[in-house]
Amino acid sequence: MNKNDQLFTRAKLAIPGGVNSPVRAFKAVGGTPRFITRGDGAYFWDAEDQRYIDYIGSWGPMILGHRHPAVHAAVLSAAEQGLSFGAPTEREIELAEEIIKLVPSIEMVRLVSSGTEAGMSAIRLARGATGRSKIIKFEGCYHGHADALLVKAGSGLATFGNPTSAGVPPEVVQHTLVLPFNDVEALEAAFKEHGDEVACLMMEPIAGNMNFVRASVPFVKRCRELCTAHGALLAFDEVMCGFRVALGSAQSLYAKEIPGFEPDMTVMGKVIGGGMPLAAFGGKREVMSHLAPLGAVYQAGTLSGNPVATACGLATLKEIQKDGFFTQLNQRTQQLVSGMTAAAKDAGIPFCGDSEGGMFGFFFFPELPQNYAKVMTTDGAVFNRFFHGMLDQGVYFAPALFEAGFVSAAHTAQDIDDTIAAAKRTFATL
Ligand code: KE4
Question: Is 266 in the pocket of ligand 1 (CB under 6 A)?
Fold first, then answer.
């Protein structure tokens, strides 16, 4: 048994499934998960000291690549001052101000420690602010594992083919309407029947938990109009897209197509923490003012706004604002997707992909799927053979069909070319 096998055997004795988050267990793709010892730039190394080009980036946070000097310097110097105080610090204000500056729809923001916590809190806030109970989410979208949102989630659950989680009592999800993504008709019907009971509609603008499925512009426009018409709050879950697909996040891309478009609330995570436990939810002042200690909606957290995490997040947000950052990241990611698509074509394999900023997805289909039902028809066996073919050549893609991939600023044109060459060789084996 090699070191990864040994570690996995040991891990499974002490930790359920040997992992602290299900998708890491390789259950969907088979084989032994790689136990990572260190990362540097676009790469990380496993317990066998095997190097991989990393296209996970911790599922989004590592947009600068691993061990960015300015980020590590900021984290180490913050740590020198103390790890956590449970009292307000100036850096929390700085990070809040930075998020507000970069995402104009956000007038106030609350920092928390995970995307799940941010999404769960946003739902409670929407319900408290509107006095309503119903929420709308979409099949294939994942907003963290809070009970009310764990219904037909598109991340780990969909990979296990289990549309709802055990342990969620039916009464907890009775207020959660799950609609097909990109389906305006179903949306209209739901609002027609329940519109005035809906507290909020939560959506991933680009569904990275279905690999990579864009909400169409007409669909987003209709979500906005119907929420406005019925007094429901539109919540954009940008935990994955936030500061990843564009500096202004996904909502800035839709605002280019829909004049004046803004969500009422935004949920963020991943990149804003730069790899440390930090997430956030924000929105209009009159909505956010319902939050304790100002208002009646309770929400709290021991490590919320943690001083080391905020230093990491601030240093990360500083770097992504540098000239040309997203232009180059966009180019690199597009180079990857078009190179792989061309290689698949040459091998006669149905394949398509899409990308925005540093986020990408690909499918073994001739054209991009628009919803969860279509994504579910993917041939998982082909995907799994592709995944392992690339892994064996030192290229680490998401170990699950329903996950997006991520390119960092540290990935060079050579890394992309090497990845495409590895894909050529792998396609030939399919
Ligand atoms: P966390 O609680 O994992 O920080 O965030 C939950 C979440 C909320 N919203 C969106 C759009 C998300 O993508 C996520 C988390 N994404 C998964 C990957 N699909 C995290 C990886 C994992 O579960 O291990």
Answer: no
pLDDT at 160: 36
Instruction: Say what the pLDDT of residue 157 is.
Output: 41
Pocket test for ligand 1, best of 113, 160, 239, 268 (most atoms within 8 A of CB): 239
Q: Is the CB of 143 inside a 6 Å radius of any atom of ligand 1?
A: yes
Which helix (H) or strand (E) covers residue 396, if one does? strand 395-396
Q: Work out the mean pLDDT of the chain and round it to a whole number.
A: 95
Among residues 155, 191, 199, which one has the least CA distance to residue 175?
Answer: 199
> What count of other Cβ atoms lies within 10 Å of the Cβ of residue 414?
9
**Residue located via tokens 């995490």:** 309
- CA proximity to 261, closest of 215, 225, 301: 225
Distances (CA, A) of 206 to 92, 225, 238, 276: 28, 19, 8, 23
- Give ∠ CA 263-248-114 in degrees, rounded to 5: 70
Mutate-to-test residue for ligand 1 from 159, 240, 375, highest number of ligand atoms within 8 A of CB: 240
Percent of the chain with pLDDT strictly greater than 70? 97
How many CA within 13 A on the CB side of residue 29? 27
Residues in the chain: 430
Which DSSP letter does residue 135 get?
E
Residues 188-209, mean pLDDT to the nearest whole number: 96
Within 10 A of 295 (CB to CB), how many other CB atoms are there? 14
Residue 191 host element (H or E): helix 184-194
Average pLDDT of the residues in 208-226:
98
With a 6 Å cutoff on the Cβ, whether 144 touches ligand 1 is yes
Task: Give dist(CA 296, CA 125) in Å, integer.
Answer: 9
Q: Hey, which residues are catalytic here? A: 142, 237, 270
* Contact of 52 with 44, CB cutoff 8 Å: yes
Q: What is the pLDDT of residues 135-167, one digit of tens each?
A: 999 999 999 999 989 886 445 443 333 447 888
* Ligand 1 atom with least separation from CA of 24: 24
User: Is any ligand 1 atom within 6 A of the Cβ of residue 245?
Assistant: no
Angle at 153 between CA 103 and CA 401, to 5 degrees: 95
pLDDT of residue 150: 87
Question: Is residue 116 within 6 Å of ligand 1 at its C-beta?
Answer: yes
Output phi, psi for 67, to 5 deg: 55, 45
Residues 310-336 have pLDDT tens digits of 999 999 999 999 999 999 999 999 999
